[in-house]
Design brief:
The complex is a heterodimer of chains A (about 375) and B (about 270).
Chain A: H1 3-6, E1 10-15, H2 16-27, E2 31-34, H3 41-53, E3 57-60, H4 64-76, E4 81-86, H5 87-103, E5 107-113, H6 128-131, E6 140-142, H7 147-164, E7 167-173, H8 174-177, E8 180-185, E9 229-231, H9 245-260, H10 263-266, E10 269-272, E11 279-284, H11 288-300, E12 305-310, E13 312-314, H12 318-325, E14 330-335, H13 342-349, E15 354-359, H14 368-379
Parallel strand pairs in A: 2-3, 2-4, 4-5, 5-7, 6-7, 11-12, 11-14, 14-15
Antiparallel strand pairs in A: 1-8, 6-13, 10-12
Chain B: H1 24-38, E1 46-50, H2 58-61, E2 65-68, H3 74-84, E3 89-95, H4 96-102, H5 104-113, E4 118-123, E5 126-127, E6 133-134, H6 158-165, E7 169-174, H7 178-190, E8 195-200, H8 204-211, H9 217-226, E9 228-230, H10 231-234, H11 239-242, E10 246-253, H12 259-272
Parallel strand pairs in B: 1-2, 1-3, 3-4, 4-8, 7-8, 9-10
Antiparallel strand pairs in B: 5-6, 7-10
Classes of the chains: A alpha/beta (about 375), B alpha/beta (about 270).
């Protein structure tokens, strides 16, 4: 096979949804299933061309439930697998995500969230990755803010999924999906790739759901004689369905624990101008772009404002929020919705400082001026 | 104590199973294991899938790689498995609710693609696990826990549905035909493409008690037998005469490239392109 076709390298002026595809391929993705929905459709389109080129599989499923379950099947079979959708389609996928959390199937979901019924940018569904599925789970959710980050964080999403045997959601929106920007893709050997652990013992000694409370059990692919039962129902270390309350409690303590006890490893963020800040602006996803521009302009105007750019929104990076809440007087949480992630920041920070919301729920991005006005208002 | 030799392919912790006395699901599990044993199926290369319901429990008991616990999505799971690893054998065990009600879209589209899997439907004409509610397969006019004045909905013919959707192997039997079931399961699993085997099975606990007013399995089996017509006989009967009858036999067996084979062709093309 022509090596050039395999993994794209070099510098490109690239469409956001295409950067996701190239990131997935660089991460080792060999299975994609999707159902068309704006603004995520170009991910499926590009995948339909690229997957067979790299020896992977692409399938357009009959609905989003089909997509998420076929991705889960492929994942348990050994593939790094992904689907992409947008808000309404993400609803349908909650059933499959609930199962994937329960059986600890690594997979990646791109959710290009949108305003209800329309394609405009919105973060109305920011809490859906966290609370959308039935049953107990800890979500991992990344929010890139540029086309370069779409590429980078797609790789990161696969790495986290493989490492923690957990679904990973990448929450984006139309602004990023349809943006064209410069992307620099390193050589494949410069990219860090994480692969799932496989069993080191023969099938007769293997317990498929046994691990320490903050750890992840090895995952054998189908067809190698391990004969694992992956049931949604509460299951013991050997996979047996059990109605003993202890089985349920122990299982979910570990499924939640493997994320909760590794928050520092999972959570990524960036800070800007925080050393002397009195006011802290918090943003995620596409809105980090006007946010950083506004903070830079406010600094020029003499306001002591800092910026916390969230890359991982779930698990909530409580440590950095708490640390910064002790340094500043006020925190502004800006969002393209009616105020949702605000409550996560407020929960952590309110004992140390005042937390206020800056909201825009019109399907359009913040303008720098709107953010500046808020910074000026709270700085008075 | 004499132990059934097929027990080697059963998960020990799963026994005793949870099927009611006389349930058709236990029979179907037994007949599947017999078929698998007779065809010397490599149990390491088998993936069994069940959704939700009584029949969906069969894969829980079989010692093989298995998925279980989501209602209706079995063919989608199978799609991911078979596309990624076409060498595996995938068998889905579904109730009529799983396949013809909640999983209808997944079912017809897997058939349309001619995905190389086998679906064994235990059609007991009601929702057994939840207490005997009406299903899309409940015969017209019958009384169930959600049709207390008689079922007014027409009955799905799962075999016809599979055929028009594109299935390349379609058969129906009732649990009165154990030998034919074993033979058909073997043929269905050897068939390259989408095979659908519908088995009309008894649910003495709910369908038996509510509809037939008897919890005895033999009464259900007798009721089914009285209404069974072979395919050959049915061809000479009118539509009115066939109302409420179970037509049994092998309906479809044709050769068409499986989805996995089509994909392999496409992959070759994609990689050969300059």
């Amino acid at each position: 096979m022509n090596k050039k076709r395999k993994i794209l390298t070099g510098t490109h002026f690239m469409f956001g949804n295409h950067a996701i595809v190239e990131g997935a391929i660089a991460a080792g993705c060999t299975y994609f299933a999707g159902y068309p929905i704006t603004p995520a459709s170009e991910i499926a389109e590009r995948m339909s061309k690229r997957m067979p080129e790299v020896g992977g599989k692409f399938i357009q499923m009959e609905d989003e439930m089909g997509s998420i379950f076929s991705v889960t099947g492929a994942s348990l079979c050994g593939a790094k697998a992904m689907t992409a959708t947008a808000s309404a389609g993400f609803n349908y996928m909650q059933e499959g995500l609930g199962y994937a959390y329960a059986v600890e199937a690594p997979l990646v979901v791109m959710d290009a969230s949108r305003i209800r019924g329309e394609i405009d940018a919105s973060h109305a569904d920011v809490m859906q990755p966290r609370w959308g599925a039935s049953g107990d789970y800890e979500a991992i959710c990344l929010t890139p803010s540029s086309v370069q980050e779409l590429f980078d964080h797609t790789i990161e999403a696969f790495n986290l999924a493989e490492k923690y045997r957990n679904p990973v959601i990448v929450l984006i929106d139309m602004i990023l999906s349809h943006m064209r920007e410069r992307v620099v893709i390193p050589d494949p050997d410069e990219i860090t790739i994480v692969n799932r652990k496989k069993p080191t013992v023969p099938p007769e000694e293997f317990l498929p759901f046994k691990a320490n409370e903050n750890d992840v059990p090895p995952l054998p692919p189908f067809g190698e004689g391990y004969k694992v039962l992956y049931s949604l129902n509460p299951h013991g270390e050997d996979g047996r369905i059990g109605w003993d309350p202890d089985i349920h409690e122990k299982l979910y303590k570990r499924i939640l624990g493997k994320i909760r006890n590794n928050v520092d490893d999972i959570c990524k963020y960036e800070t800007y101008y925080i050393d002397d800040a009195d006011v802290l602006l918090v943003a995620y996803g596409s809105q980090c772009r006007p946010a950083l521009a506004a903070v830079r302009e406010a600094r020029k105007r003499g306001y002591k404002v800092g910026f916390l750019k969230l890359i991982t929104i779930f698990p909530v990076p409580e440590k950095i929020i708490e640390t910064l809440s002790k340094k500043v007087e006020k925190i502004i949480v800006m969002e393209l919705n009616v105020g949702k992630y605000f409550f996560e920041v407020d929960r952590v920070a309110k004992k140390n400082c005042e937390v206020v919301s800056l909201l825009k729920d019109r399907g359009t991005s913040f303008a720098v001026e709107e953010i500046l006005n808020k910074i000026e208002e709270v700085s008075r | 104590m004499k132990i059934n030799p097929l027990r080697k392919n059963i998960r020990e912790w799963g026994m005793p199973h949870f099927f009611c006395p006389g349930c058709g699901a236990g029979q179907i599990m037994n007949l599947f294991l017999r078929a698998a044993d007779e065809m010397k199926l490599d149990m390491n290369k088998l993936v069994v899938i069940g959704g939700v319901g009584c029949t969906a429990r069969i894969p829980v008991y079989i010692k093989a790689d298995a998925l279980h616990g989501i209602h209706g999505r079995c063919p989608a799971w199978a799609t991911g498995i078979k596309l990624h690893n076409p060498d595996l054998k995938v068998v889905i065990f579904g109730g009529d609710g799983d396949i013809a009600a909640i999983g209808g879209n997944q079912f017809i589209n897997a058939a349309r693609r001619n995905l190389d899997i086998t679906i064994i439907v235990n059609n007991n004409m009601n929702f057994g696990m939840t207490g005997g509610q009406a299903a899309p397969t409940t015969p017209l006019g019958l009384y169930t826990t959600t049709s207390p004045r008689g079922n007014i909905e027409r009955t799905f013919d799962i075999c016809k549905l599979a055929e028009v959707a594109g299935a390349t192997f379609v058969s129906r039997w009732t649990t009165n035909y154990p030998l034919q079931i074993v033979k058909t399961i073997k043929e269905g699993m050897e068939h390259r493409g989408f095979s659908l085997i519908e088995i009309i099975g008894q649910c003495p606990t709910h369908f038996g008690r509510y509809v037939l007013k008897s919890a005895r399995a033999e009464d259900s089996l007798r009721w089914m037998k009285e209404r069974t017509v072979t395919k050959e006989k049915a061809e000479k009967m009118s539509e009115e005469e066939l109302e409420g009858k179970f037509v049994v036999g092998n309906f479809v067996k044709k050769s068409y490239p499986s989805f996995e084979d089509k994909y392999a062709e496409l992959e070759k093309k994609a990689q050969g392109e300059e």
